[in-house]
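Table S5 (text form). Sequence records supplied for joint modeling of the two-component complex.
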Amino acid sequence: MDNFFDLVPLVVMIPLVGLLINLFAGRQLGERGVSIVAVGASGMSFVIAVLLWIAQVNTGYEAAVIDMPILSDWIVIPSANVTIPWAFRVDTLSVTMMLVVTGVGTLIHIYAVGYMHGDERFPRFFVYMNLFLVFMLILVTGNNFLMMFVGWEGVGLCSYLLIGFWFDKPGGVGWKNSDAARKALIVNRVGDFGLVLGVLITFWTFGTLDYYREGEAPIAHHAATDAEAPLFAPTLPGEEETHAVSGPLGVFNQAELWLEEGGHQVNFGMVSLSFETTLTVITLLFLLGVTGKSAQIPLFVWLPDAMAGPTPVSALIHAATMVTAGVYMMVRANVFYHAAEFSSFVVAVIGATTALVAGFIAVGQWDIKRVLAYSTVSQLGFMVAAVGVGAYAAAMFHLVTHACFKALLFLASGSVIHGMEHGHHHVSHGHSGHHDDDFDPQDMRFMGGLKERMPVTYWTYLFGTLALAGIIPFAGFWSKDEILLDSLKTGVDKGLLSGYVGFVLLVVAAAFTAFYMWRQVSLVFLGKPRHAAAAHAEESSRLMTWPLIVLAVLSLLIGFINVPSGFPILGWLLGEHQFTSFLEHSVTYAHAGTFSFLLATFAVLLALGAIYLARSVYSDRVLATLREDPLAINPRTQRAFALSSAKLYWDEFYFKYLIYPYRNAAYWLAEQLDWRFWHDYVHERLLRDPFNAATRALSGRVDKQVIDHSFDGLGHATRRIASRLRRIQTGYVHIYTMSVLFGALLVMILILLPLIRDWLGL
Amino acid sequence: MEDISLVTVVLMLPLAGLVLMMLFSRTEQAYKWAALVTSLVTFGASLLLVRNFDTSAAGLQMVHRVDWITADSFTIRYYVGVDGISLWLVLLTTFIMPLAILASFNPIKDRVRLYYIFMLLMEWAMLGVFVAQDLFLFYIFWEVTLVPMYFLIGIWGAEERIYAAIKFFLYTMAGSLLMLLAILWLGNEAGTFSVPDILAKLESGELAFSTATGRWLFLAFAIAFAIKVPMWPLHSWLPDAHVQAPTAGSVILAGVLLKMGTYGFVRFNLPLFPEASKTFAPYMAVLAVIGIIYGAWVSYGQKDVKKLVAYSSISHLGFVMLGIFALNPAGIQGGILQMVNHGISTGGLFLLVGVLYERRHTKLMSAFGGIWRAMPLYSGIALVIVLSSMGLPGLNGFVGEFTILLGSAGSSVLSWWFTFFGAIGIILAAIYLLYMFNTVFMGALDKEENKHLPDLNWQELWSLVPILVMVFVIGLQAGYFFEYMDGSVKELVDYVNGYVLSAAGH
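The corresponding structure-token record, covering 1268 residues in total, follows.
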């Protein structure tokens, strides 16, 4: 069983081969061939991931470090003691991520075959999708921070390519898509700036970037007091130079040891900090990266725009997998975050605030995918907040459940859009001339009553909604409840402010979640069709509905992998917190969630209440004649709704205070300072012109009057030579060049001379 | 009689080719191919340099040393060799030249013979700069590089080529005059112009100069090199030269010529004037960081794509300078690798710009848009090269920048702020490069004249493919490249630090 771990490179290699085949032979293969290759690659990766999971279970959850075949170590600088290898890590955390990425990824690949059918760049789409899998899997399987960073920026690139996939749509749409793509990558780069700095400090602090070395097990915090626990003697840092010598331990165990020891000082370059402060700095810098990738305040602004990409992309990249990379990274670095209390507080506040703010904005959106986008931001906020309150297992659990139900919701929304487009096509063909240009297949105002037209989509959507709203027994209930309870317990048991703040904000956010989701279900599926397109919408093909059904089942069942301890019957039936126990082998500070009947009841009632509220606001009567949102008409909610609709003017703020100033400054620098002042004024007015003037003065007055008069004869001679020289200068390029060539030849001969002399033995 | 070293062979091959070409070629086709074959043979020979290179040795290898001019008080030698610092730059030169020549096949229709003569002359001179170990010999090669480039810009350049060529010439010339004085002074004091000999004399105490003298000499060299790099604010010649030069000229300029400046710092400033290097390191680093940010910012304000790429060089070479003056192994090795990376990526970017210019005879970004639809192959390659320039991990630009930042973060002469501001360059690079990529390649293909642009022809394709390969090879296996420079750089750093320590001890 042990050598099963050696399969891990295949997880990355198979999609890589798949994308290469489609890249070079996509045109010849045709849609069918491309689909088989792409889906096959993704599916085979999933199989490998399952094998790795089985291997994990059978080997007692031992972690393994596997070197990359073909390539040797990546960055090695012996004299600087830098060794950054290409190495994979198989442990329960990475296996969990692999299963999510390849599992959900495969379903989305299948769906995309149907969704992208007929697109002129069908092969390219699947090249990008497989490329995404490659990078995402590198991200989660790498054994060091820099390899993670390869995946981290790589998925960002794929996101750029896929958001801008329809970059050439006619009119403004193509440009809008391209801009959205660019925005995503640049905003992510801002986050990556923090991540890079964090990685640099990590390196100089520990002398390595490896999470754990080969054969090294995480020192469990409870075991650290055991006499036998740390088998390795850590090398203690002394001087700056010797410090760089990488110890035998990976960063996390090294951190544990230093923390236990206490009073460790970090010295490198001109920096000298206590180890605790260093960890705070590192974790805060990492957090900046997280806010970029996982769309948290203040960098979340790119994700809603990212919906410009094809819907399978929104599902795979911008909901299920890529955006959770930040959460994965923080859970991976749970040893750091656990020790850095201040950073954890910031993480909790940012996560919970994002959850609430995004939930609030989601209420005011009309675009079906935009609602889901803000919902994703909000749910990511839940996960980040969970990390902040120390609930690492709960964060991962929510990551897994969210991947299922949010992928489902996106795919179902894609099905809705497809149906609407189909209906619109039907209508505009039926009555030529009757053609409304402002029709938008994603605008929920044009929908309504799709329940009858698209039953599979409706029912699966409903499952996703209930899971997201946190209704028992759907998946979201279990994971969200665990986060809420953990926050509260962090507040009460540990007396940490972050727990209380997190809890309060998240509870409100949860209520918003249920409300905006039911608003959406009402607008899309309930009532009567409000547009001819909706009336003629048709259910999508089997290729698209089949993955929906699978995901719907998952959204119902996946929560059972982590039933909290103390839950009646189910806990006994399915085993308690299985998932947490699984994770504990690689996530040192994962802890199992208990169950509070009171809180669970409260949360479910809250969600049901919000759904009831949404149902009464968006009643069938209102829906029938919908022009404006009822909240926009109601004087009490009018202003709040306007604010939500305008996304709190967040983008406008950035444009006004960051982007325009930067751009205008760039123009000023480029045109005024660098060109007109430095290039033209200084170089031409201040340097060239006075020099020329002086030359003229010399050749004119001084030369003619002084020199000519005093040295008449000499002057004549000079002038004669000069006029000859002038003839050379007067422009025939070949005279120039021949003379220079002659000069160069002279130099050549001069240089060759000693060689020749030496050679001849003179 | 001493054995002729492989270095001499590599150095003289372009000249041999030049002579053969002038003797036997009669048609334009023959000139093109003779030049290409010559540069390819040179590249092949330079690969032997890598094969024969002993990575365990720190000093010069494959040395060829012959007395040239002997006088009573000094000797000037033909003294060439490679070590870990120059090896990859030699390879970069021999790698870029065939690409530049191939990319000239179509655009150059005028004075073809002369053009390829200058190209080979250029290669010879640049190789000379990187292998010369005698200050005087170095200076000659340094100046000779000006000549072919002057004419490449002045004859085959764009509208304002004469202005640009003269400015290029005067600017660099003015800088090197001070260096010449410093070289003459040094040679006179030491009685030799050979750098290893001077270093040996410095180490043994046979030759010594005061701190102040050392600093003045440092500055004299530094100005010549800083202009070449170019470091902010001495960059004013660069946009002119780049924008006016023909495509191959820009490729060589950005790909190799600028590295002569950064190389000069590592080869001469650091070992000859260790005390001054350490004293001036923070100041040099300030200019470097200003260059990183300023270059990136100004790039974003451009409307002409070639100018944008030109200014981006200022930013990228700022990184190189930051690495060098971190004065530790990571920084300097990152700096050297980044010289190579910049040559590859920016050389590639200029080739790409050339492709567009060939087709549309404009370099204004606003004239394009949606090119990806019209030229998919070209655009796909452009994407990779843009990403490499942007420093996407897994590609070559990243390993260089990361190692440089690693060096500057761990540097004992630079404070943390340098790393912080340097890293901002990572964000700014994404801003201007994506602005360029979006404006030119993405968006709707709505301009009639762009709709039927032909995709790459074979010359263009094959001048870009080797670049793509190297982008991945260096990006994925940087360790291989560091291995070759490690010994030499370690010795250099030890020497610089040791010298300062021992000086402090006295």
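Note: The CA atoms of residues 563 and 571 of chain A lie 6 Å apart.
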